[in-house]
Amino acid sequence: MNVLLPAFEIPQEFVHADDAADGGKRGENAYLRHLTYVGATKRWGDPVPAEIAERLDFELETIERTGYPGYFLIVQDFCQAARDMGVSVGPGRGSAAGSAVAYATGITNVDPITYDLLFERFLNPDRVSLPDIDIDFDDRGRDKVIQYVIDKYGSNQVAQIITYGSMAAKSAIKDAGRALDLPFDEADRLTKSVPDNSSLPVILDSDDVTIREKFRNEDYDKAVALREMAKGNDLKAATLLQAKVLEGSLRNTGIHACGVIITPSDIRELIPVATAKDSTMWTTQFDNAVVESAGLLKMDFLGLKTLTLIKDSLELVRKRHGIEIDIEAIPLDDTATYELFQRGDTVGIFQYESPGMQKHLKDLKPTVFGDLIAMNALYRPGPLEYIPSFIRRKHGTEPITYDLTDMEENLRETYGITVYQEQVMLLSQKLAGFTKGQADMLRKAMGKKIKAVLDQMKPQFVQGGIERGHAEPILEKIWKDWEAFASYAFNKSHSTCYAWIAYQTAYLKAHYPAEYMAAVLSNNMDNLKTVTQYMQECKKQNIPVLGPDVNESMSLFSVNQKGEIRFGLAAIKGVGEPAVKAIIEERKNGAYDNMYDFFARMDNRAANRRTLENLVLAGALDSFQYDRSIYFAPDAKHGTFIEVMSQYARAFRESKNSAQGSLF
């Protein structure tokens, strides 16, 4: 499938006279090769080691043959632009981290050579399809990157993607009931009688045997009752039958959470568009599946809160300790970080904070980064059952065995257990001589249980293994084991990237716990329940969390010189951004001496009576040594004390502004 890529402007010295004949691909290939080797010398040294240069050349040749050099150039360009704007860019996600070219050009930040990540898992050299590079940005900076793309390619070439919401069984019943004037309480009872995630056509058109196979226990009784009800002649039966017709109809539209289309020319020449609600960007009128099948370039700009959290932590460390930490250069053998994982002390740690994960970490006691990658891959439905064996093998209470000695090199890091799709791919090449492309086809067929492909590839695997001196019964066993587990096996590239982010968060928590937990609180302050849980974690870590204070609090949670976390003003319910900004801005002129000084310096337009009341109730004025009840003391003539002080402040400012003497 030809993908309509926007033209990427390359430096003049890489433009060739015959570029017009091949759409500029020759120049793009030359420029991508240049960027790759410039980056490679920074990543691996100068000169680039021969085995790495061989890998880079293989990838570049594949990219050239598949026609996607422009795609890599576009992505590396906005990744670099994001870093230049101070936006945090994730280390990678998905299979893109398997590309050494992506690593060399700064698209990803995890070394695929070190971790045996495979390029062909990302771009199959035997079967061409557009590779999928999804990029994580810190969620505050994501919009800046999208705006950069709009500015570079033009607002008429960039659009968000529409989503269509379809009508499910319960909403179909409600709508049909309203149209047919079925009383609300009866329609409500009908919707509650529909088993969760069930379809009305299945329920109403099935016989007893089919319903028994599809439903169980109380859901079976509900399904039978609905089917019998639909056979009647009353309004409920009519509602159910009409709802069956409506189910699956399009009900509403939305915007894809992260997908953005970039086109080579005016997007209106290619697909219909509309204006998005609450956005200046256009929106496609075709959904994700259609625009991709039409050959349009879809990029996923993902906002990851954890990147913002790391960024906030580093800023708090800089402010308090005067230390600039390069989070991408922290040591991977840090004792304190592994001790944190070994204790299961992972509340607030990306991907590793669930109670189940904490229990397994305490049992595993990870000592190397590979343990963290494996746990990230294993802790999901299916492979969960292999975790106890993985732990026993690490600690030597269960023997580590290999069906063939040739398998040890690829399975050593996971103690003889096949955990990753990449292991299956590498072993199929080593044991049976599969090509890189065939290995990826095998991975995909096993993961998606495509029987026809598996039946076709099994004889090839067995025959290839026999030709390399392996016994047929052992090859049959290996294949059977792979079929059983490969549907669970995880993408190591993705697991490695997210284990690296988790390690960064754990490193910060281990060495700068107050700063890290302050950042965690700041990035969750819109959820009171979550804030409460993390405050409990601070208490457990013996980190004091002080209430808000107009003389010390910042907008977000902060850390003072004593190592105490100070509650953020923006986390106080009912205190808006203008008030927070005004309090902090005015404080630059000196601390507030007392409540009279505070009220005199507060602009009523930024902080109204209700805002001031919320500040008092939250304890933000407690440092002035007045009981909170004083502020609400009634005055028959002028209202509460807060109202009196607000009037005083307004009059004080008016008199000051008019340069007249003040009675106050």
Summarize the structure in words.
By secondary structure, the protein is of the alpha/beta class. Helix content is 51%, strand content 8%. It is built from 30 helices and eleven strands. A six-stranded mixed sheet has the order 1-6-3-2-5-4. It starts with 24 loop residues before the first helix and ends in a 7-residue tail after the last helix.
For the secondary structure, the number of strands is 11
Kindly report how far apart the N and C termini lie: 78 Å
Rg, Å, rounded: 31 Å
User: For the largest beta sheet, what order do the strands appear in spatially?
Assistant: 1-6-3-2-5-4
Taken as a percent bin, the fraction of beta residues is 5-15%
Poorly predicted residue ranges? none
Mean pLDDT: 89
User: What is the overall shape?
Assistant: globular
The number of helical segments is 30
Compile the SSE list and pairings:
Elements: H1 25-44, H2 50-66, H3 69-84, H4 100-104, E1 134-138, H5 142-153, E2 158-166, H6 169-179, H7 184-192, H8 200-205, H9 208-214, H10 217-229, H11 235-246, E3 250-262, E4 273-275, E5 282-284, H12 288-293, E6 297-304, H13 305-321, H14 335-342, H15 355-364, H16 369-378, H17 387-394, H18 408-411, H19 421-432, H20 436-447, H21 451-467, H22 472-485, H23 492-511, H24 513-522, H25 528-540, E7 545-546, E8 558-559, E9 565-566, H26 577-587, H27 595-601, H28 609-618, H29 628-631, E10 634-635, E11 639-640, H30 641-657
